[in-house]
Amino acid sequence: MIKVTLDTNIANDNDLVREGQKAGLEVLHTSVTDRELMGSSINPASADSPPILETVVLNESLLGQAVLGGPNEQGIFESLLKIISNGSFPSGPNRSNLSDGQKRQLRDAMILSTHIRESRDIFVTNDAHLIPNHNKPIWQLKSGMSIQCLGQLSQIFIILTGSVLASGLVFVCVWDCQA
């Protein structure tokens, strides 16, 4: 089964979730998304399934809604933070007073690292800032993990679901996730 993870900004796309599920895809969001949407009127379209629990990040994760990470996860998480922030994210001891933008970057890295930890197949987002070049491999991390946006992925999804997806969606396929 192909496992799809939805970013917060696409988590309430009912058509995407319905068509993916109809095609036999496992379409889920993370516990980070639940926390980000808490108090709003937005509900994740995949809310009928439990979210993927995030890896614990101190002063961010909620007790009972996160799991402890393995030996490679901190390195992957820190690499993602560095990539997402273009190297400007504060180091560990300097993270007590993050700006709203830095909190969003932290949560982006949490969602992506959860996707990687769970060895999921496709990550769907419309955060173009995560994908600076939509046609080439974007990042090759020291851990050996690659992140690439595949132009053909939307065609694959259309074939799998028989649907045309909303414009502006960015598909990120993450593979080779061992550190």
Main sheet strand line-up: 2-1-5-8-7-6
The Rg value, from CA coordinates, equals 16 Å
Strands, count: 8
SSE pattern, N- to C-terminal: EHEHEEHHEEEHE
Number of domains: 1
State the end-to-end distance: 24 Å
- The SS-based structural class is alpha/beta
What does this 3D model show about the protein?
The chain has about 180 residues and is an alpha/beta fold. It has one domain (about 5-175). The protein contains five helices and eight strands. The strands form two sheets. It has a six-stranded mixed beta sheet with strand order 2-1-5-8-7-6, sandwiched between helices. It has a two-stranded parallel ribbon with strand order 3-4. Helix 3 (about 75-85) crosses helix 4 (about 100-115). The longest helix is centred in the middle third of the chain and has 18 residues, at about 100-115. Residues about 130-170 and about 175-179 have low confidence and may be disordered.
